[in-house]
Amino acid sequence: MLHKNLILLLLIVCALLCISANVFANIENQPVIKLAVSNATSGPTAQLGIRLNQGANTYFDRVNREGGLAGKHIQLVLLDDGYEPYKTLINTQNFLKKKDIFAFFNYVGTPTTHAVLDKISQSHVPFLMPFSCAFFNAFFRC
């Protein structure tokens, strides 16, 4: 379990290194690090989204109990997309309108990821750990 936690933490740190100074400036003004999550918590693939969210929340609860990341607590902001790409796009647009998220996190599925990839790339908000079997070159734009 500790090994898995270390890997997750290293992935987050590596992703954070790709983020511009602009994003880091924004985080200093935020009381918490908000990770925007749009995945299925209803419908036929609900258990995948529910379990991913439970696992992430369990880990981040532990991180928060130990003082957070750079003194900031991590909060998942969850929206259900039912594994429907158009709902994922609407959820993503709503997250971007709020302008208070640090990163997109834990998106589930190739069709849903494909539906939002251009929007996320244009936003310059980090896209961390999408759960997809597809390889998208845009993930590696820093």
Proportion of residues in helical segments? 40-55%
The largest beta-sheet arranges its strands as: 2-1-3-4
Structural class: alpha/beta
How many separate helices? 5
Uncertain residue segments = 19-25, 138-142
- From N to C, what is the helix and strand string? HHEHEHEHE
Q: Round the Cα radius of gyration to an integer and report it.
A: 14 Å
Overall pLDDT level: 82
Query: How would you sum up the global shape?
Result: globular
Which CATH class applies here? Answer: Alpha Beta
Biggest sheet, in brief?
4 strands, parallel
CATH fold type: Rossmann fold
What percentage of amino acids are in beta strands? 5-15%
What's the end-to-end separation, in Å? 30 Å
CATH superfamily: Response regulator
In the CATH hierarchy, the architecture is: 3-Layer(aba) Sandwich
Number of domains: 1
The tally of strands reads 4
InterPro entries: Leu-bd (IPR028081), Leu_Ile_Val-bd (IPR000709), Peripla_BP_I (IPR028082)
Keywords: Amino-acid transport, Signal, Transport
Protein name: ABC transporter substrate-binding protein
Family: Belongs to the leucine-binding protein family.
